């Protein structure tokens, strides 16, 4: 004997309209909470990436100066304004050449003019890898700030080595001013 299942008597399956509305409301509330947090995370990540890229540019300029035994310069593309990007310049067979170009800072990240001199838009490395400004050793920093208020700085010592620091931490970059504090 075969058993026949009658679907007419089976209980209804699925969700009620009220259950669906509760789920939609919960998703909307959680999204409203998560989106601002995600934006903050995104801006802080852009800041960290920009700082990393600036350190890479400084390290490249220093390495090229040592490798080529000549002066290599990292300059901003727009005078003293690092916001527009930067490039590593040197001479190949006596011809001025751009060795590498870096993009402008991403949206939401800018140079913080309140900290340091930003090297006046130029960092030169001599054949020994020391950072120079003419005949004098160059020390200073470039500080970047995200729209979230978080800041980060790259400090270059007289020896030419860059390091990243947090200007909002007491003593990390000096006394909240990283100009001239390079060790």
UniProtKB/TrEMBL annotation:
<keyword id="KW-1003">Cell membrane</keyword>
<dbReference type="GO" id="GO:0005886">
    <property type="term" value="C:plasma membrane"/>
</dbReference>
<dbReference type="Pfam" id="PF12019">
    <property type="entry name" value="GspH"/>
</dbReference>
<keyword id="KW-1133">Transmembrane helix</keyword>
<dbReference type="InterPro" id="IPR012902">
    <property type="entry name" value="N_methyl_site"/>
</dbReference>
<dbReference type="Pfam" id="PF07963">
    <property type="entry name" value="N_methyl"/>
</dbReference>
<keyword id="KW-0472">Membrane</keyword>
<keyword id="KW-0812">Transmembrane</keyword>
<feature type="transmembrane region" description="Helical">
    <location>
        <begin position="20"/>
        <end position="42"/>
    </location>
</feature>
<keyword id="KW-0488">Methylation</keyword>
<feature type="domain" description="General secretion pathway GspH">
    <location>
        <begin position="52"/>
        <end position="160"/>
    </location>
</feature>
<dbReference type="InterPro" id="IPR045584">
    <property type="entry name" value="Pilin-like"/>
</dbReference>
<keyword id="KW-0997">Cell inner membrane</keyword>
<comment type="similarity">
    <text>Belongs to the GSP H family.</text>
</comment>
<dbReference type="GO" id="GO:0015627">
    <property type="term" value="C:type II protein secretion system complex"/>
</dbReference>
<dbReference type="InterPro" id="IPR022346">
    <property type="entry name" value="T2SS_GspH"/>
</dbReference>
<protein>
    <recommendedName>
        <fullName>Type II secretion system protein H</fullName>
    </recommendedName>
</protein>
<dbReference type="GO" id="GO:0015628">
    <property type="term" value="P:protein secretion by the type II secretion system"/>
</dbReference>
